[in-house]
Specification:
single chain, Beta-galactosidase, Chain A, domain 5, TIM Barrel, eight-stranded antiparallel beta sheet, 54 strands, globular
Length: about 775
């Protein structure tokens, strides 16, 4: 790395082949400063080889910055030792450092790669933030671009969702960057849909001590270099069963989410065991957030009950985790009621203009500026002393009043208050929760650590980390919350808990095992956030992270085909997933036990890396299906399936003599075989039925299926001499004789017909499938 006499970077050379990755014509100060909103680059630099320092001189502001550098085997570090004068400097910016690399931009980890080489930046302490100070509250922007992806083989050009900008694409290639803010003064800035938000001064030494690492390496060694930097620079370095989490196959371990407690723990553990998994997760164990007391009906002895569950699971080789909403505080928590904690996050404050008694419903205040911001104002709550109030609105003109006030809100005590008393506008969230200032963030993080230390929990998801924007410090506030939790874990747990979140971040890369996005609540099993899940796989690849597919929900109606669709995606991307289910759901689903067995078989193969690259590439395509059949203890048949889905025959009025059926097209890419089909009646009218179901292939051969489907019921044929009539939860009602329809290779037409009875709209949904040539997939005897 070359640095000239003006303190600017001039080259970044791969020493193995003398290729310079620094783009011509670009300026790149080693360090810039911002004074009164204006960025200033150094004019000159003084090098001192004896003490390994570079002094940058900024003539306009008459500022000198002393930087110590250390050349190590895997990287270089730069640390800001002093800045004189420092008071007027608002922030320092490392770089941006430009490169000609454009192929793979790891925006969160801060590493850019082409096929041959990688260049990266790492922030080496919490206050040094990866990225650029685009937002004054230090929240990280996300942005979309359209690009060709070499990893997600779904379509030629896809939208890439970039989360953060520690590395960022540019017209000449890419840039990598970091910065550190001076927080020595109070500020009023925009925060989280508030134009005016009071952010108090925070003492962390200011910009002095900001430190980064830079490295260049062969592209395939970038991940191992990051591991060396973690160890060398005393960064978090989590392990799973003794192996660094970023390279451990265990980092992508799938898990079940079950609403268990002491009484039904055995049933939940039995599901995990049958699915061949190691992790059981509770999605909603708490009666409050803040103190994290557990639901009494599930855990009668609170944390002690959960500890018993953890210990029992451990004896079966199963680890337990819980879901949190980080620093969200429910209104029933002791931090809120009956005496509110003064550290609940505040948008800002004003003063009472007049005395009020405990019954006053109009409150006169000096200034409305923090109270009349209504866009992100979900609880309309304010705090005066030990009382919480809720107000409907603020008067439109002076004298400024809070109107229609509810006194003693959230079971606090209404009381009188004197003129001149401070009234604070509380920050809240759309989940109808309060949030924390810096001090309370630390206390809550420590309380979550105490929960883990006392119970032995081994998995956590820090959902809702954006709640820590309430500190006014953006990604710095989020990072401090998780690091405080991490630092307060007992030694036997620290770095050994599976950790993920829905908020990425540069420093989080070191603390989190993985990220995990994708929720099951918004559409069908295959449709809910599918494109987001695919974009996430590209994010994981770009950022050298273990892959996850997110949450899926199993219901009594979930089909085996849907489950294998998920399991094939997991195998293709080598990504973990979680399945929300329950013993009752598995019992109701007629294929419940088969589903658990399928999960076990597919996960054995995935976790033992048994699938080859060609098979993985095919399984990344969401439009392809695959089926697994076990042959021996260590071998399976992997069978490609071609499916034609989303065919619908709707009930409609026809003219006399007009054909009532619906014609569907289907292509068989494989050899001649019986056509498989799944037929389901969908209607909101219980009295509707469909009978006399017929299928005609290529205007030649017709079969009639002698059964009648009620709403939600299913008729499925997968070969042989009979079809199976199921109820809506895949429980067998009857088997009926069925003659197969032989479909040769190529295109076909299928005419569907049926007789509807009963009044009401109805749709019959039909799926067609054929199977391809099976391949044998095996594992070694010692790998299961």
């Amino acid at each position: 790395m070359g640095i000239d006499q003006t303190g600017h970077v001039t080259s970044m050379v791969d020493k193995s082949n003398e290729k310079d990755y620094f783009p011509r014509g670009q300026e790149s100060p080693l360090l810039s400063i911002r004074v009164e909103g204006q960025y200033e680059s150094p004019n000159s630099a003084t090098f001192n080889e004896s003490d390994k320092t570079i002094t940058l001189h900024f003539s306009e502001s008459h500022t000198d910055a002393v930087i110590r550098f250390k050349e190590k085997k895997s990287h270089i570090t730069f640390e800001l030792l002093s800045l004189e004068p420092s008071e007027k400097t608002e922030l320092v910016l490392w770089g941006p450092f430009p490169t000609i690399i454009r192929e793979t931009i790891g925006e969160s980890v801060g590493v850019v790669r082409d096929l041959d080489f990688a260049i990266g930046i790492q922030a080496l302490n919490l206050k040094t933030l990866g990225g650029y100070p685009t937002n004054e509250d230090d929240s990280e922007p996300s942005y979309n671009i359209f690009s060709t992806s070499s990893y997600v083989d779904v379509q030629d050009s896809i939208k890439i969702l970039y989360r953060g900008q520690t590395a960022r694409a540019s017209e000449f290639g890419s840039i990598i960057q970091a910065y550190c803010r001076n927080r020595n003064e109070d500020r009023v800035i925009p925060v989280w849909k508030h134009e005016r938000y009071f952010v108090p001064a925070f003492e962390d030494g200011g910009v002095t001590g900001s430190k980064i690492a830079l490295f260049g390496s062969p592209a395939d060694l970038a991940l191992s270099i990051l591991g060396k930097i973690e160890i060398e620079e005393n960064l978090p370095h989590p392990v799973i069963d003794g192996e660094w989490g970023k390279i451990s196959q265990g980092a992508t371990a799938a898990y079940l989410i079950v609403d268990f407690g002491e009484e039904n723990l055995d049933d939940a553990l039995n599901l995990v065991r049958k699915a061949g998994l190691r992790y059981l997760y509770h999605g909603s164990p708490f009666t409050n957030w803040g103190h994290f007391d557990l639901r009494e009906e599930l855990f009668p002895e609170n944390w002690e009950s959960l500890k018993k569950c953890v210990e029992k699971a451990e004896k079966m080789g199963i680890r337990i985790g819980v879901h949190t909403l980080s620093n969200f505080i429910t209104t029933n928590d002791p931090y809120v009621t009956p005496i509110p904690d003064p550290r609940l996050a505040r948008v800002g404050e004003s003063k009472l203009v007049k005395d009020i008694d405990e019954t006053s419903t109009e409150i006169d205040i000096e200034s409305p500026g923090f109270f009349n911001q209504m866009e992100n104002n979900n609880l309309h709550a304010a705090i005066i002393g030990d009382e919480l109030i809720r107000y409907n609105r603020v008067s439109e003109n002076p004298p400024w009043k809070l109107l229609q006030c509810q006194r003693g809100a959230f079971a606090t005590q209404a009381s009188s208050h004197e003129a001149g008393s401070t009234i604070g506008k509380l920050m809240d969230h759309a989940y109808k929760t309060f949030l924390t200032d810096n001090s309370l963030s630390e206390e809550m993080a420590k309380r979550i650590a105490d929960l883990f230390n006392q119970t032995g929990l081994r998995q956590i998801s820090f959902d809702g980390l954006e709640g820590n924007w309430s500190t006014g410090m953006g990604q710095y506030g989020r990072q401090r919350f998780v690091k405080f939790w991490y630092d307060h874990l007992n030694p036997e747990l620290q770095g050994k808990v599976i950790t993920d979140a829905s908020n990425p971040g540069h420093f989080f890369w070191h603390m989190f095992t993985r990220m995990n996005w994708g929720e099951p609540w918004y559409a069908g099993f295959r449709e809910s956030q599918t494109q987001l899940r695919l974009l996430n796989q590209d994010f994981f690849y770009r950022n050298l992270m273990p892959a996850m597919l997110g949450w899926f929900r199993m219901s009594p109606e979930t089909s085996m085909e849907d489950i294998e669709w998920l399991l094939a995606r997991a195998a293709g991307f080598d990504a973990g997933f979680c399945l929300v289910t329950s013993p009752a759901i598995v019992d109701k689903n007629g294929h419940g036990e088969e589903i658990l067995k399928a999960i076990k078989d597919w996960e054995i193969l995935r976790m033992n890396t048994a699938f080859n690259d060609t098979q993985k590439r095919l399984m990344k395509d969401i439009n392809r299906e695959f089926h697994l059949e076990k042959l021996t203890e260590n071998s399976w048949q992997w069978i490609p399936v071609h499916a034609n889905l989303n065919n619908e025959h709707k009930r409609s009025e026809k003219q006399p003599g007009e054909p009532a059926g619906t014609v569907f097209s289907f292509t068989n890419p494989y050899g001649e075989q019986p056509l498989q089909y799944t037929i389901k009646l969908v209607t909101d009218t219980p009295s509707v039925m469909v009978s006399n179901i017929s299928l005609e292939l290529d205007q030649f051969k017709t079969i009639i299926l002698q059964t009648a489907l009620k709403p939600g019921e299913i008729l499925q044929y997968k070969g042989g001499d009979h079809a199976i009539h199921y109820d809506s939860s895949w429980n067998i009602i009857r088997k009926i004789p069925a003659v197969n329809l032989l479909a040769g290779p190529g295109d076909h037409e299928i005419l569907f017909n049926g007789t509807f009875t009963g009044n009401g709209e109805a749709t019959v949904r039909i799926e067609f499938r054929v199977i391809g040539k099976a391949e044998i997939v095996e594992i070694k005897d010692n790998e299961q």
